[in-house]
Amino acid sequence: MALNAMKETYIQQPAVPQNPDRQPVRKKSSITKGEKILYLSFIAALVMCALMVLQNQSAIQSSTQEIQTIERSIDEKVKQNTDLSVQVKDLSSYERIWSKAKELGLKLNGHNVKVVSGQ
């Protein structure tokens, strides 16, 4: 009897009516409009931050190059100043001044000489 009851349940299943006028059911996307807007705004903010970082890196690099150029210029000026100070010491030696004075016809008068200490 149990077998007959089982056969009847299989046979007596109601058929699913198919309606040709009905449109197929579309699956709703799991991402809503609000989430899409949030994702897009997050991506836009991320791109803006990346661009700002690149701009800052570029500014830092150009500043570094400018600083190096100025440092090279300073080194050149320091070298020139050192060379000129050595040249001043050579030109202001007593022997050179005395020889120039003799060339110009000046004579050493002991009464008119004042000693100045060079500190």
TrEMBL record:
Major localization listed first in the record, in broad terms: membrane
Positions of transmembrane segments: 37-54
Membrane topology note: Single-pass type II membrane protein
Pfam families with a match to the protein in the record: DivIC
Statement: the UniProt record of this protein carries the keyword Cell cycle: yes
GO cellular component, one term: plasma membrane
BP GO annotations: FtsZ-dependent cytokinesis
Locations listed in the record: Cell membrane
Keyword line: Cell cycle, Cell division, Cell membrane, Membrane, Transmembrane, Transmembrane helix
NCBIfam families on file: ftsL_broad
Similarity comment: family membership: Belongs to the FtsL family.
Function (record text): Essential cell division protein.
Protein name: Cell division protein FtsL
Taxonomic source organism: Planomicrobium soli
Name of the gene: ftsL
